[in-house]
Write a structure and sequence with these properties.
It is a single chain. By secondary structure, the protein is of the alpha+beta class. The protein has helices at 5-35, 60-68, 87-90; strands at 44-52, 55-58, 73-84, 95-106, 112-123, 126-137. A six-stranded mixed beta sheet has the order 2-1-6-5-4-3, covered by helices on one side. The longest helix is centred in the first third of the chain and has 31 residues, at 5-35. The N and C termini lie far apart (47 Å). The mean pLDDT is 89.
């Protein structure tokens, strides 16, 4: 078996970069969601979509309206996983899959577990959400 070490190193660099991007993005996203929700739409592409517990919301303006109707929240992340998507799947566009889980407490409700998946794409050195899928986890 011949192993191309340059390819292995490139892949490891891509994973490291994806993890760094995902960690930074997650910190910004949840802090913005909990404290400055009115600017959250700036993190989404114009063509972005959100699936929230099975409900589909398309476009940043509609996503903003949806988020604005949610009660005040406090998120706490427990897990975070990031991986780059292969160029073949994204037409060479730098894209990262970010998977998070944790707890969220919406004002007036009990704390609940959640999972959230983001597909991020790099737009002019800024990571933007192309797809966002949120799911509450019932006990």
């Amino acid at each position: 078996i011949i192993i191309n070490m340059a390819a292995v190193n490139d892949f490891k660099t891509n994973i490291d970069n994806a993890c760094r991007a995902g960690e930074e993005f997650s910190k910004v996203f949840y802090e913005t969601f909990d404290k400055r929700r009115h600017v959250l739409n700036k993190l989404y592409l114009d063509s972005a979509n959100l699936v929230w517990n099975g409900n589909v919301v398309k476009g940043p303006q509609e996503i903003t309206k949806f988020h604005d109707n949610l009660p005040h929240s406090e998120h706490s992340l427990i897990t975070l996983d990031c991986q780059p998507l292969p160029d073949e799947a994204t037409q060479g566009q730098a894209t990262v899959l970010v998977t998070t889980s944790g707890t969220v407490k919406f004002e007036g409700n009990s704390k609940m577990k959640f999972t959230q998946n983001f597909t991020l794409t790099n737009q002019g050195n800024v990571w933007k959400v192309a797809s966002d899928c949120f799911r509450c986890q019932e006990d």
